[in-house]
């Protein structure tokens, strides 16, 4: 099982290290190199409609899973307590359905916020 380190940062370094989660509270984002080894940079924005970061004082978790559907690798994994758990490959249909669902949830969230 792959284990990642985490670093709380002010600015994202020019060169990302493998197996490091760079966490910017100020910019509400977590950045890391794709854990499949393809070298792509993965940005997970932290917001009510994107990802949630949990820090227990020792390890971090991101929720929901990370699906790199725009990368050639199409990797899909969870990060729980600094550990990577790979998911099965999704079909193009599953990816498209997940995108539609996410878009619908985001629209609903922002419509609700607008009406308050």
Description:
With 116 residues, the protein is of the alpha+beta class. The protein has one domain. It is 20% helix and 34% strand. It has one helix and eight strands; from the N terminus they run ββββββββα. The protein has one helix spanning 92-114; strands spanning 5-8, 20-24, 29-33, 41-45, 52-55, 60-67, 76-80, 83-86. It has a four-stranded mixed β-sheet, with no helix packed on it. It has a four-stranded antiparallel β-sheet with strand order 5-6-7-8, with no helix packed on it. β2 and β3 form a beta hairpin. It is globular. The mean pLDDT is 95.
Key phrases:
single chain, 34% strand, 20% helix, four-stranded antiparallel sheet, 116 residues, globular, four-stranded mixed sheet, alpha+beta
Which secondary structure elements does this structure contain, and how are they paired or packed?
Layout: E1 5-8, E2 20-24, E3 29-33, E4 41-45, E5 52-55, E6 60-67, E7 76-80, E8 83-86, H1 92-114
Parallel strand pairs: 1-2
Antiparallel strand pairs: 2-3, 3-4, 5-6, 6-7, 7-8
């Amino acid at each position: 099982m792959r284990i990642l380190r985490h670093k709380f940062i002010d600015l994202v370094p020019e060169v990302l290290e493998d197996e490091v989660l760079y966490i910017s509270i100020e910019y509400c984002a977590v950045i890391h190199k794709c854990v499949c080894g393809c070298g792509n940079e993965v940005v997970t924005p932290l917001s009510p409609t994107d990802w949630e970061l949990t820090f227990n004082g020792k390890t971090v978790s991101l929720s929901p899973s990370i699906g790199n559907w725009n990368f050639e690798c199409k990797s899909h994994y969870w990060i729980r307590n600094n550990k990577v758990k790979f998911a099965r490959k999704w079909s193009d249909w599953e990816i498209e359905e997940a995108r539609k669902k996410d878009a619908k949830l985001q629209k609903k969230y922002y419509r609700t916020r607008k009406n308050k």
